[in-house]
Amino acid sequence: MTPARRIVTLPPTLLGPDAVHFARGCQRRGADVLEIRTDLHAPDAVDAAALADVLPLLVSERGKPLPPAWVAAAWRVDRDLMDATGQQGSLDAPSGKLLASHHADRQLTTDEALALWSRELPSDALVKHVEPMKDPAHVSVLLETQRRLGERFGVSRVTVLGMGAVALPARAVLARNNLLDYVAAGGSWVAAPGQRLLDDAVREWKGADRTTLPAPLRLGIFGTSITHSRSPRIHRQPFDRIDLPEDGPVEAVLDSLVPHYGGFAVTSPFKLRLAKHTGSSLDAINTLVRRGSRWESFNTDTEGARKVLERLDAKDVIVLGDGGATSALRTVAAERGQALRVLRRADIQGPVTGAVVWTWPDRVAPPDSLRFERARVAVIAYGAPGRRIAAEITRRGGTPVLLGAAWFVAQARRQRQLWETAT
User: Fold this and answer.
1) Does a structural domain hold residue 110?
2) What is the 3-class SS of the chain, one letter each residue?
3) Are residues 309 and 195 part of one domain?
4) pLDDT band at 331 (very low <50, low <70, confident <90, very high)
């Protein structure tokens, strides 16, 4: 089995030579196709021929007509089955270049979706069907739509996509049998909500056995603002970065993925919510392992907490914040006979002294009243978030101790062992 062609869309802010530089960078990172769209770029804003010299070019008509120079340089020409008024759209394209697409405005049943594709298409046209996803369980419908469209047009011609805040794991599952995989290059701009990162999609296929059937059970991580997470780099593939809003329906997403995933890592802010949802006896969890049709929950953060408390080597420890990480610290401190005092935001009055563990994620602003005096403050985040927290600790008078990597590696080793037992 071959991977879907990875398509990256040119951001609207990149023009002329900058667009070519972007294309070269994406090619080096493993992109297969570059898309340019008429709603994002004016006809003379980019040199289509120069872009096509770097990567095969997909030119997409979105509300404004396609410039002839774009069509001439294109590998494929994306035209909508329906125009903005709901009438049949033009499918004119040079021979062998048509990508016929339909972008639904609501979730459809499979029968409703197939009814849209009754129009006669050239035998060499590709087919792309896109639907919004508000209900995470809609992944099962999209998979059936993908299968039925494959029967009609041939599996080598079909792409089915979900779109929306909860769509990423569905897109990852669908990509296994899609021709095209629309992915995000990274940074703050994405062409559509729910896209995986290019680097994650490439990593999935590096060194993979493409003949393996059925596909190996996927793994993933749930969290908010987790583009920095190293989990996709160190755990076995396929491994998906499922970034949801803090108030997102993580419980419903988790339930919808039982047939497709063998396990998950769980990070802030979902450790307490998913402990409750899975009926765990623990206050907070960071690991889920599939057991048939249900999830079994664990907290391997205790391994990380043990490393941190050993390194601080203090009889009394103050913890800033009372989330999922604090639950693991409480457990280990009790085992080690260390006194643990938890300070919530409202508890902070005077300067904090002694051995401290900072558990707030860097996206959460610390209270204005927080100051340190002769304090060694363990940072359990890593990467750029860890560095930002360390700078904040220094600014407030403390001495940061960077222990995020030690915490992460210790808990990840145990996660790996647990996921090997998934059934």
Assistant:
1) yes
2) CCCCEEEEECCCCCCHHHHHHHHHHHHHHCCCEEEEECCCCCCCCCCHHHHHCCCCEEEECCCCCCCHHHHHHCCEEEEECECCCCCECCCCCCCCCEEEEEECCCCCCHHHHHHCCCCCCCCCCEEEEEEECCCHHHHHHHHHHHHHHHHHHCHHHEEEEEECCCCHHHHHHHHCCCCEEEEECCCCCCCCCCCCEHHHHHHHHCCCCCCCCCCCCEEEEEECCCCCCCHHHHCCCCEEEEECCCCCCHHHHHHHCCCCEEEEEECCCCHHHHHHHCCCCCCCCCEEEEECCEEEEECCHHHHHHHHHHHHCCCEEEEECCCHHHHHHHHHHHHHCCEEEEECHHHCCCCEEEEEEECCCCCCCCCCCCCEEEEEEEECCCHHHHHHHHHHHHHCCCEEEECHHHHHHHHHHHHHHHHCCCC
3) no
4) very high
Q: Is residue 245 part of a domain?
A: no
Summarize pLDDT for 183-225 with one digit per residue, the tens.
999 998 999 999 999 999 999 988 555 555 556 789 999 999 9
- 379 lies in which domain range? 302-409
Structural domain count, the chain: 2
The reported pLDDT for the residue numbered 350 is 86
User: Where is the domain boundary, 190, 210, 230?
Assistant: 210
Structural domain ending residue among the three candidates 159, 191, 210: 210
Global pTM exceeds 0.85: yes
Between 56-60, 139-143, 203-207, the lowest mean confidence (pLDDT) is in: 203-207
Give the CATH number for residue 148: 3.20.20.70
